[in-house]
Each structure stands twice: as C-alpha cells, then as structure tokens.
C-alpha cells in the first residue's frame, strides 16, 4: 500500500510498517488557535464577513520537535511532515543535520536525541514518525525557540484522531452527507425557497443553474426570516445571514463555505440567472453519540434528543456559539458545551482545542472575549477538563499561559483586590430581562467567579509543582471568599445583593446570579441556605432568568439542594416550550410571553436571535450529572460517584462515557442497577446508603 508524505514541500511515496501507535504531533494549542481562527472568519452578517472584536493569535510557523532516544541498533524511520522539514540528531560525537527528509531516515544507534524542525506558514507545523521502536506520540517535546533553549519545551499535542500518515490534522476534512430539501417553492422575482426540515450545517448546492449573474442567498432559521427580502435589500444591518454569490451556467455548483440554516432563499440580483433546485452537503464532526438518556416521560426524551442535536451542530473543530449567526468562540458558551459534551460525546480533544482557541497567546491585553466573567470561567474549565478527561499533559502545557492570564486578571482588580468595573472590561453576567447594576462598584457574582478561578489556578499550579503560585492563589481565594457573605449579604432580603457600591453601601438590586452560584460553591450556612432558597430561588418576584445560559446554573443550583422534581418540571416547561413552537434545535433565549415572529427578535433586530445556540443544550448535562448522577471524583473517572435521582419520574436509564469505559445506570421505584466502567466507583442511593462499585462489574440494589 502506498503512503504519501508531504515533506520539504513535496509529496513522496514510501512503504509502511504495521505499527499503529504513531500519531501526528504538533505544538500544544496551535491547532486549537488555528481552527478557532478559521471558524471565526466564517461569520456572515449583514452581507459581509464580521470578524471578532477581540485579539486573534497565530500559530507558530516554525516548530522544533524532539525526543531523547536510546537505541540498540540503527533505527529506520518513516517521517511525514506537514511543511518544510529537516531532521537532526545528537550523539557523543556532536550535533548532526540532514539536508532534508525524503520519507525514510535512518537514525544511528549512537543517537541520544532526535530533533525535527518544521516550517509551515499556512498551517501549524506537524510531524508523524514511525519506526520499530520510536514513534511520534505524547512523549515528544516541542519548542518554538532554538535547539539550545530548553526552557520553552512543552509536551506535544497528539490525538488518536490523527494517525493516518497521509492526512495531517490541518488537511483532514469532516464527513459530509448529501441532503435534499424537504420542499421547495418559487418566490417572486425568479427566486427559490427551500426548507431542509431542521436546523443543519453544511454546503449549499445550486442545481440546474442557467445563465450567469449574482444571486442573493439568505440563510435562515425560520421561514419568516428567509422571506424577509425587504430587510436584506433596503436595510443592510437588519438581516444577519445573507451574502451575494456569483453563479455561472452549470448543472450543479457548490458554495465552498459552509453555513448553518434550516431555510435557504435564493433571489436573482442581476444578470440572466436562475436556479432550478437546491440541495446541500451536510457536514458533521462525525462524533459518535456515546452517552444516552431515556426515561418514563416522552417529552423529556425528546428534549434530550434535540439538545444532543443542538450540541452536535455547534461541535466543530472547536466549540462555537451558534451555527448561523456567530461561528465565534465565546468562553461562556464553550465552558458549558464542555460539560454537556462530557455526558454525550466524550470529545476531550474538542474541549482541549477550544481551551487553547480561547486563551490564545501572550501578551494578554484584554479579558477573553473582552468579558471579565468569561476569563474567570476559563480557569474553572481547565480544571474540570483535567478532571473529566484525565489528560496527563494539559497542566504542564497550559500552565505558563494560565499564569500569565491570571496575572492580567489580578492586575485589573481594584485597590481592595476585588473585580473592578473598568470601561474596557465588559461585565456581562447574562442577557437579563431588566438592566443589571454592573457599574459603580463590585458585582458579587464577579467576586464569586474570581474566587473559583483562583481555586482552580491553585489546583493546576499544584499539579506542575509551582508551590509558591499555588499558595498565593489559594490565600487570595480564601480572603475574597471570606468577604462575600460579610459584604453582600442583606439581612432584610435574606440573600446576597448584586452590587456593592464604591461608597461601601449595598445597591438595592436583588438577582439570582450570585445566590445560585453561592449554593453550589458552598458559601452559605444552613440558615442562610434556607433563606436563599425561599427568598431567591423559589421567589417569583425576583427577576426571572430568560436565557438557557443562566438557566443552566439556576437548575444546577436547584439540583444541588435536591429539588430534582422542580428541575424536571422546569426542563419540560422551558425547553418543552421551544419544542411546542417547532424548534428543531434550542435557542439563545426563550420567553414564553412573546408570541409569533417576535420570538426571533434580539439585539434590536427582527431576526437577531440564534435558534441553534450552544448554551441551549444544557439538559444533557443536568440529566447526566444530576439524574443519572454520574460525577468524576478523580481525573479521568479513576474514581467516580453514581448518585441517581428519579426527580418524580417513574424510571430512567442511561450511559455516561468515560476514558475508562461507559458507565450504565438504571433506576426505578424498586431498584438501582449500575454497570461499571473501569474506574473505582461508589453508589449513593437517595436514602443515603452507600455501596462500592467494583471495576467492570454490575451492581444491583433494591430500594
């Protein structure tokens, strides 16, 4: 069988061995950054491309990969490199260079280290090596500096997704599947409107094109948006997803930039051109759905299925916010996508790559996405990624940039060491139903997030042996944690207030945000917790949350206090409400009081709302973690807990993917059954009884 290698800028044929362990390796984080840039450049808005308003970073275009070796004999290697490459080695006699790699290379037995230098200005440099004893894997190191400088050496990125020697990561394509529209109809002015039946993502195909000229293509998530031709024609800023495309007479033409949509409306703009029909190539990441959930309530089952579809659509090379409107990588959306993903796909590579895409490189000049809270979320996401994935290298790889990001965040605090309100630092919190009092003081919610960020940073610092940093982060976190109830608690309201003003007085605004985070981060004693539940969580007079984004945390807080029945009803009411309106994926925001086409409005635009939004998929996380009850206790589920809860359902069952294998859970009114993965588990029943779960065994307990 022939193998094709891209080496020194040319393709070379060579034979292959049967060793299966070799992977493409790259500089840590560079593919995440590169893929993030590629995706964010696709955002289509108002007839043009809209790039992010925060800094975008570049991958290194020259990287050195190296590994120490100890050989009993000369080693014949196959070497594939995505870029211009040179192989070098060290031996007792000195440092040696080859002129170029030509597919095969013999490494002398006296070599003590192999070094491969690669340059590529189009994609991140990557290398693939396979020999009898030596392969490219996670044991290699990478640097962007010089051969003599070892201070920047980091463990490489490697993934089981990229083992094919003919296909470097930057050239691998997602699978596509041809889809026909479920119906089409002609529209005034020689146009054609197609409905593909559900929210989807891919490449539009223009069939039976006659003549030549420009067409206006509207990519829409509702039929009303698809038909809003007047907005595209007369008010360029009023309709998001449209572009002009030049077509020439052809049997079939494919638009080579993918988009998200359900409806496509094509209207001739000039020339003598017409389109006879429309089809698409649906593109997915090809992730197998490894998690599952079924229960006695068919509506909950349907909500789980649509949530999985929503998440699948926003799982690209990295996690994006929305498939039609955004294509951007937002930290607040992404960190929730990670948690959902852990219970559905177990795509740890996608999480890692997204962490890098968000973080970028040094120097840090602004908060992630320019949002203070989004920076704080990132630190917690790094620690949770390590917990769920068991990734042994992420701490060492990411710590230098974690530390510099924390230094930036701490530099933005006020003189009391609290999260200051600064004109350049966006305090987002949520798209709330009324204005939030985020200025003129310190927001309690931000202080709680900062404490969590410091605690997570301390844990990662411990992992890499940075003891002084860990102690500093931990002491700062403890001091700030101790202030929260002391400064923001209002005895009359029986809850944390939203804002501590600069003069030291509490603002009068009471919101759910800090209070619900205070629940699952353990800020309250028993009396305070009871007060918060009654005065905030179960109080309809407190401003209600409208976005799935903050519903995620609100319902998690309710689960944390055992209100699973309430959560089940909320899932049916909120997400079920979207299904009743015909949703095929879940939205950026849902307000049941808004009727008709007004549901699609947001940001002052008639169709500004995203109808396929990453943060809309949160039921898959809530049902997996709090109803199936599966939670890792040690990295990679080496130890885990199963604490199932029916929440008013008659029965439920499901599967949770882990690096040690799938954990299966079923609970009904009579018994609980757990089929273990490879880790060490414990089963906690609703009545408080605890049982060990031996690895790869079945445990069945009567209730």
CATH H level of the largest domain: which superfamily? Answer: Galactose-binding domain-like
* Structural domains: how many: 4
Mean pLDDT reading: 93
Distance between the termini: 58 Å
Can you tell me the residue ranges where pLDDT is under 50 for at least 5 consecutive residues?
A: 1-19
Fill in the CATH topology of the largest domain: Jelly Rolls
Q: Describe the global form.
A: globular
Number of H/I helices: 15
Per DSSP E runs of 2 or more residues, the count of β-strands stands at 35
Rounded to an integer in angstroms, the radius of gyration calculated over CA atoms is 27 Å
How much strand content do the residues show?
25-35%
Query: In the CATH hierarchy, what is the class of the largest domain?
Result: Mainly Beta
Structural class comes to alpha+beta
